[in-house]
Amino acid sequence: MVRVLVRSLAFVMILGAPAFAAIAGGGSALAQTDPGDAGAAQAITAGSDAPPAPELLAPTSDNQIPLTPALVQRFLDSWPELSTLGDQFADQYGVDEDATDPASAFQVWAERPEAKTKIDAVLTKHGFSGLDEWAKVANSVLLAYDYDESLTDPAQIADAVREIEATPGMSRQEKDSLIAQVHKQAEDAAAGKPLDGNRAVIEPFMDRIGAVINADQGEAD
C-alpha cells in the first residue's frame, strides 16, 4: 500500500499537492481540465490587455540537496528494503490518513520503538543519518526525474493560452478558468524545479528510477 506513494513524494514535499498535468499535451489535454475548478478560477482578460503570466518561482533548496552518483545509488539500494518494511508496517499498524508520501508515513511509524529500530537499521546500512536525510535525497531524485521543462516554457504556455482562446463553444468564464490553470501549473512546475546539476547526475540511473516508480504504479493498478 505504501509503495504506491513513492510517485507523489517529490511533489508533496515541495508543492504540498500533486503536480498538474503537462501543458505539452496540447489542446486536447487542456480541454479535459475541469473549467469549474473554483481554486483555479481567475479573471484573465483576453486580448492585448491581458495581464502577463505570473513570474515563475525559483527552485527551493529547503527540501532538496545537490545529488551525487553515490547518493542516488544509496537511495536506490535502500528503497527495496524500505518498501518491504512499509508493506509490513502498513499491515501491522495501518497507514495514517495524513501520510501523503513515504517519508511522512515512515515518520509516523518511527514513533513506535520497534518500527524505528528496523527503519534505522536499513538507513544506517545504506549510509543515511536518518529519515530527514533520506527524504531529501529521495525528493531530490524524484524531482529531477519528473521535471518537465516544457511546463515552464513561455512559448508553450502562450500556445496553450491561444488554443484555449480559439476553442469554440466555451464561455468566457470557462476560458478564463482554464487559462488560470495553465499559469498555475507553470508556477507549480517552477516551484518543483530540481537544483542545478541534479538532472545530469540522475541521467545514468533513469531506468532504475523508472523501474521503482513503475513497479509501485503496477501495484496500484
Characterization of the model:
With 221 residues, the protein is mostly helical. The chain has ten helices and no strands. The protein is elongated. The N and C termini lie close together (11 Å).
Condensed summary:
The chain has 10 helices and no strands. The protein is mainly α. The longest helix has 25 residues, at 69-93.
Catalogue the unreliable spans.
1-60
Strand segment count: 0
Number of helices: 10
What kind of sheet is the major sheet?
Answer: none
Gyration radius from CA atoms, angstroms: 20 Å
Mean pLDDT: 74
Which band does the percent of strand residues land in? Answer: under 5%
**What is the helix fraction of residues, given as a range?**
55-70%
Query: For this entry, what is the oligomeric state of its chains?
Result: single chain
Q: Helix and strand layout, with pairings?
A:
Elements: H1 9-15, H2 27-31, H3 69-93, H4 102-109, H5 113-125, H6 131-146, H7 154-166, H8 172-191, H9 198-202, H10 206-220
Name the features.
10 helices
